[in-house]
Homoserine kinase
Amino acid sequence: MRISADHVRVSVPATSGNLGPGFDALGMALGLRDELEVRAVASRTVELEIEGEGADTLPRDESHLVVQAIRAALDHVGASQTGLAIRATNRIPHGRGLGSSAAAVVAGITAARAMIAEPEALGRAEALRLATAFEGHPDNAAPAIYGGATVAWTEDGAPRAAALEVGDQIETSVLVPAATLPTKEARAVLPSQVPHTHAAFNAGRSALLVHALAGRPELLFDATEDRLHQGYRANVLGPATVLLRHLRDRGLAAVISGAGPSVLVIGEGLDAAGLGAGLPAALQGIGDSGWRAFHTVGRVAGASGEPVGV
């Protein structure tokens, strides 16, 4: 396999995992995207220019997730390795349950796909397998790759995903606090076993959520109830727990985004409900946190990559 494009542009969305009851299975792409330009250069060096999220903390060498993913994808298809010059514009907040690490991995795989002569060798199914090898589970990688809402599962050790129908009227507003929460910490408080009644409850609500997303927004409040993870995480989620209770008391279909501490609201008329993009005045100070809102209407496209100047 040869590299046929030495300059590519990539865009990849933020994602929210779980969506309430669909623990480690359901996910959705959000209208907040990282963008990268990747150049293949005639050396084995790596040059990284980063602006936005993580500009002061992310590595500028081979340990960067985008670089690791490009290397893994090129090896996977038997393409030669190359030096890399990468310019990243990061808009997805880090450490807040919005799939930033999955986005980085998917961005690298998508860049490699755009660079090689036979991009079909890194189709969606292969991209999901490669991304899951990095992530450990496919629930964020799947919507980052496929876009929209997805259900992901593992069969015979291999990750699988299917796109779900999302009604045109469905909106999301993701509310992001200043605080971060490592995913490992959020997972550490989960019990190894849960009551059978809770498992059955979530199975039913997950099925209802798939139906509601397809165009029955009036069902979203009931469909986003959860008994498997959010209650157990309440004490480590800080201001997210307070905001979640506040929003659900208002009848809004609010859930913890992934492992938190961001809060995702799914529904319609969210701008009119005071959850439009920016700094919602009605939410400031709830849980002693300043909240930023990112508002999206309709289905969000998955990762895309294309050669530049072709």
